[in-house]
Amino acid sequence: MILEDLPAALLSVSGLDDENVYAVGADPGDGFGPLVMHWNGRYWRRLHSGIQGDLWWISDEPVDGAFVLAGENGAILHLEPGTGRFERFDTPDDRTIFGAWAAPDGHSWAVGGAASEAGTGFVWVRDPVDEIQTGPGTLSGFDGGGAHLGGVGWVVDEEAPRAVGGQLASLYKIWGVDPSSVWVAGAAGLVLRFDGIRWNRVETGTDRALYSIHGHGDDVVAVGGASEGLILELAEGSFVDRSPSDTPPLNGIGVAPDGSAVAVGWGGAVAVRSAGVWENQGSVLPTGLDYHAVWIDPAGGAWMVGGNLSEALDRGVLAYRGARDITAQVAEDTACPPSEARGARTISYLEDVVPILQRSGCVAQTCHAGPLLSSGFDLSSWETSFGPGDQAGRFDFCDIVPGSPERSYLFEKISPVPRFGSRMPALLPPMSDEDIETIRVWIREGAQNDATPNLTIPPTATPTPTGPPPMEDCDDPGIICTVAGTGMSVFDGDGRDALDTSFYYPLDVVFQPSDQLAIIDDWNNLRGRRIETDGTVQTIIGTGLEANPENGDLATETSLHHASELAFDAEGRMLVAGNHVPFVFRVGLDQRVEVVAGNGEFSSTGDGGPALQASWITPFGVLADGAGGFWVTDSDAHTIRHVDADGIVRATAGDGSRGYTGDGAAAIDAQLDGPTRMIVDRDGNLLFCDTGNDAIRRIRADGTIETFAGTGSPGYTGDGGPAVEARLSGPYDLVMASDGTIFVADSGNDVIRAIASDGTISTVAGTGSRGFSGDRGPASRAQFRQPSGLAIAADGSLWVADTLNHRVRRIAAVATPAP
Predict the structure, then answer these.
(1) Dist CA 66 CA 59 (whole Å)
(2) Which listed site, 350, 484, 743, 780, has its alpha carbon 20 to 30 Å from 417?
(3) Distance between CA atoms of residues 378 and 455, nearest Å
(4) What's the confidence (pLDDT) of residue 1?
(5) Peptide bond into 425 cis (omega under 30)
(6) Angle at 417 (CA atoms; ends 414, 418), nearest 5 degrees
(7) Which of 574, 564, 614 is closest to 364 using CA atoms?
(8) Could you tell me the CA-to-CA distances from 486 to 165, 194, 242, 776 in Å, in that order?
(9) Percent of the chain with pLDDT over 90
């Protein structure tokens, strides 16, 4: 067994050789589409097809340099093994495709149906010529529902039903030798053969389902069964039962050129044909799961895939029998080349590229899909708000590949029609064709950076103690424990206990006036959720879809678009910062939604007038003022604004330009860089995370601004000394205990730091080394991955949104509880 307990079943496998293997399968529901695993001879990596839904098939060999993949929602794709790129075809409708095959000349077929419904089978065909002839006796009959891609169309083949006198049973797999010898297997013992002119039914002698068909030349084998398995071999124009005794139901078959064959099925069953004789070998690689498909590589190795093949299609497995040593190592991150000098430079990064990105608004913390620039304007090593290259890595891209725009995620996201998600900058001024070409040339020339480097001092990691950590009680002071989240990045429903509930980049935590914890599970699950008094998790706002808020809708019927903060006012009403929609809205005690700021335009206007007539870009943080009003940080506008109880908006801080200036003068004249979250201290001063400047800043009651913590340069230094001399890295949240201690989510350093009332700073949780460890031990020995949200409970415990670990964690008795 090579891969076990994958999040989704693997349903088909193929490849070029034993150093280039692809396995495709079901969609685990994590937002990144069906499971597609690639073995490159050294390790496995998940690829991302850009679609949603299950993939049931990958062709047993590439045609014209591309494998054919097929699955749910009428999906037919080409996968280029050299580049890992996917191309989706338009198809006649959205029925599920279970199998596809392409001939060397480009003729292609796809089959499918509904397994539980009789008469739902279908055949689609794609002709390599531009004009598809129709009519009786021709290659296919076009029903008018087919679409075309580059002049070559997939159409419904009306000839196939004629072979059985009417409707087809569900069809499961297809295989062929050439366009004059194509074989299809399906329900009710159905096998069809296309002879280049028409389809003909072939006698099988059974009415039991046949789930797969494969062969080599005239050696054709079909397998299936129900309570007992079937192995049928073609002999003199019909199929003969060659099943050995006690054959379990079989799902997949692979036939090698030398006449050997392997069939796989229920309970990990394997049957092998050697010297023309079939033998059951039982579950030779023990698993309680079912195999669904098998592929035999050119060296004779057998690759078998499957999982829990019930409706859940989860717990995927992959096994291998052969001479190779295949590891189970799965790469988490894309290994990407660094920027380097490559000959002559005609494009200046600093003078040409940076101004383009600045004009397009993609230099701040919350630009759609992550920022393009770090604080040092170093595009070759930019970090998203969730870690270096996180989104690019999930799509198997590199942020920038010097010399190759087409392999660079940056260029993918600024191109006119990106294949994944929205164009960046989304909803902001688009780049012109000339601007895009400038960036293309810059990448081709090696993505050289002529800007002055902004040196980041790496975190000083605390050595991890050797030996097993002590298992302490979760209520002992300073002990950290996970209280919510499985670590899986999916949405697996409400009503589960918090520890059995999955979150997807939980971005923030906040206690309601009722002392129940609310969680921003919105970054990809697009919801706000709450831990109920019985310990279960329920959605309190959001539908899982992206949309603008609508006045009067119930919160649970209101879509979010990567909302970034929930806050509660003195009356217990919930305020929501829209982030990717330019609104702040409020949920009343009747659970109805009311927009309280924003006119729907993406800009920064309207100071001095009604907040509902003002515009915003990315409202990231919201904080109630206790008097019926609230503050809003507009990260991409680099401003903080206040809306009073009468609904009038006024500037609080930031002149609208990105930078780090203004200390000691009026806050409205200062430069900020991507401000995020805020608090009010005991003296009524407004403190906020000036995230892009790696600082905490304070706005005094007289309107002046000063730095409270951080130097303006990223790093991890200063513990035990004044906070204003310490270095932070991308702080995202801060909370205050009743004794005045301020806790900071020093997100880029993967630690939680505390600033005492005397101004000294210390680390209270995290080692400075990214990971997940330390539960049931001292918080100082724990590891985090981009902790981005903090809340203090009534019992003095500190709750942390451990964002990249997809968990919420609790540190007992670390704070002084509020009175």
Answers:
(1) 9
(2) 350
(3) 10
(4) 59
(5) yes
(6) 60
(7) 564
(8) 53, 50, 47, 16
(9) 56
Determine the pLDDT at residue 588. Answer: 95
Q: Are 728 and 709 in contact (CB under 8 A)?
A: yes
Question: What would the pLDDT profile of 691-728 be if each residue is shown by its tens digit?
Answer: 999 999 999 999 999 999 999 998 999 999 999 999 99
Burial (CB count <10 Å: 0-12, 13-18, 19+), residue 14: buried
Distance of CA 634 to the CA centre of its chain: 26
Distances, alpha carbon 641 to alpha carbons 294, 562, 584, 614, 634, in Å = 61, 20, 12, 11, 8
Please check whether residue 685 is in contact with residue 703, taking contact to mean a CB–CB distance below 8 angstroms: no
pTM of the entire structure?
A: 0.60
Q: What is the 3-state secondary structure (H, E, C) of 42-63?
A: CCEEEECCCCCCCEEEECCCCE
Q: Two tokens at 661?
A: 């200036």
Strands (E), 26-180: 36-39, 44-47, 55-58, 67-71, 76-79, 86-88, 97-102, 108-112, 122-126, 147-149, 152-156, 171-178
What does the pLDDT look like over 747-757, one tens digit per residue?
999 999 999 99
Q: What is the pLDDT of residues 353-383, one digit of tens each?
A: 878 877 776 655 445 444 555 434 455 444 4
Amino acid sitting at position 530: R
Amino acid occupying residue 797: S
Which tokens hold the place of 504?
């997807």
* Closest to 742 measured CA to CA, from 752, 730, 751: 752
**Contact between residue 71 and residue 65 where contact means Cβ atoms under 8 Å apart:** no
**What pLDDT score was predicted for residue 546?**
82
Give the residues across from 308 on adjacent strands. 314
Query: Residue 526 and residue 549: Cα distance in Å, rounded?
Result: 13
**Structure letter (DSSP) for residue 349:** I
Predicted confidence (pLDDT) at residue 131 exceeds the cutoff of 50? no
**Structure-token pair, residue 221:** 């084998």
Q: What is the pLDDT of residue 284?
A: 60
CA 11 to each of CA 70, 225, 265, 560, 803: distance values in angstroms, whole numbers, following the listed order: 11, 18, 12, 34, 32
Query: Which tokens belong to 580?
Result: 């990717």
> What SS3 state is found at 444?
helix
Beta pairing, strands 250-255 & 261-265: antiparallel
Residue 799 pairs in a beta bridge with 791, 810
CA distances from residue 672 to 41, 383, 384, 711, 726 in whole angstroms, order as listed:
48, 19, 18, 14, 19
Least confident of 256-260, 458-462, 582-586, 791-795: 458-462
